[in-house]
Amino acid sequence: MKLDGVTVLDLSLFLPGPAATQLMADHGARVIKVENPAAPEPTRSADAFPWQQGGETVMFRNTQRGKESIALDLKSTAGKKALLALARKVDVVVEAFRPGVAQRLGIDYESLSGENPGLVYCSISAFGQTGPWKDRPAHDTATVAAAGILDVTRSPEGNSGPAIIGVPISDMLSSYLALSGILMALYRRQLTGSGDFVDISMFESVLAASPNILGPVFGGDQAPDRMKERTHGGHAMLNIYETADGQYLALGGGEHKFVEALFEGLGRPDLVKNVVGPAGDSHKPAIAFLRDTFRSKTRSDWERWFEGRDICWSPVVSLWEAWQSEHVRERGMRFQDSDGNDHIGSAIKFSSEAAEITTRLPSVGEHTAAIIDELDLTDSDRQSILQAI
Description:
Elements: E1 7-10, H1 16-26, E2 30-35, E3 52-53, E4 56-57, H2 58-61, E5 68-71, H3 77-87, E6 92-95, H4 101-105, H5 109-115, E7 120-125, H6 140-146, H7 149-152, H8 169-192, E8 196-201, H9 202-207, H10 215-220, E9 238-242, E10 248-252, H11 256-265, H12 272-275, H13 284-294, H14 299-306, E11 313-315, H15 319-324, H16 326-330, E12 334-336, E13 342-344, H17 368-374, H18 379-387
Parallel strand pairs: 1-2, 1-6, 2-5, 6-7, 7-8
Antiparallel strand pairs: 3-4, 9-10, 10-11, 12-13
Helix pairs in contact: 1-8, 3-18
C-alpha cells in the first residue's frame, strides 16, 4: 500500500487528527495512538457518544480502526521518556493540543526534531500556532462562525438565523489539509532528508475553502447580500424547493443546458433569459415560479419527472437514506466487518494498491508492552514506564 513503512505517532483526540491518521492507517501506515490511561480517547465513551455498534461507539469505530494503543502519562517522567524514545523511531507526529501545551510538556517539534531531524510534526489547532487568536478555545462550530460561514448559511426562503452546518466542516477540512501537508513534507524529506513542522488551523481550513463566495468581499469590500449571490439563495438553479409532501429537492447547477432543460420541460421557456444572467433580482420571477410549481407535486412525483432529464438536481434525502443507497455500497463507502458492524470506507481510491482496511479496534494501552519493548531503553526504564500506567 502507498504508506507501507511509514510510522505515525498520534497524540490527538476527537476528530481532526484521528480522522487524518486513520486514513493513513487505511493505506498502510503503522499508527500508534498515545492515550492517557487516566483519561483515554473521549470518543470511546458512550456517555458523550451514545450510539454504539458491537460494543463500541460508532464515532470511535470510524476514527480509530487499525491503530495500536500505547498508554502513557505525558506529564510523568516515565511517560515523557517513552515518548521521546518513540519520537526517535517514527516518521510522523500528529497532535492537537492547544498552542503552547506541547512545548510545556517538552514534546514540541523543536524538542522532538532534535532527536529525529527527519521528523514530520503536524499540529492541528483552532486558530493556528501564532496570531492574536491562537489561545482562543474553539471547536468546529465556533471556528466556522469566525470564518463567516455560519452567517451565510441560512434558509434561501424567508428570513432565518444562522444554521448549524450538518457536518463538522472545520474538523474534516483541517483533517484533510493535515494529511496533505504531512504527505508533502514526507515527499520533500525524500529529497532533502529533513523533516518539517506543519501548522494547520481549523479556522484557516474553512477560510481556504471559500474562493467561490468571496466576490463581494474582495471585489466589493462588503459582506454578501445573500439573495443576490448564486450560492446563497439568489440563483434559481442553485436553490432548495419544498414539495407537496413537505419534502425538499435541490437544484445544483446553473449551466445554460440545465436551465433550458428545466424551464422548457416545465413549459416556461420564457424564464430562461431571466436565469442565465447573474444572480439577484432577475431570478426572482423564476424562483417564485419554481417554488409554486414544486409544491404542486410530491418528492417521489418529481423524482419520476426528473428521471432521464439532463438537469443537475437531487432530492434532499435524510442521512439514513443517503447511507442506504446502492451507489454508496457499490463504491465501498459503507461496508460491514465479519461481526456485522458498519464502517465508513476510504474516499481515497487508487487503481492499484487500494486501501486495505483493518477494522480491529485497540483497547486502551493494549500494545504498550510490545511497543515499549521495541524502543531503545534500558530494562529499568521499561519497568518504570510500565509501572507508571
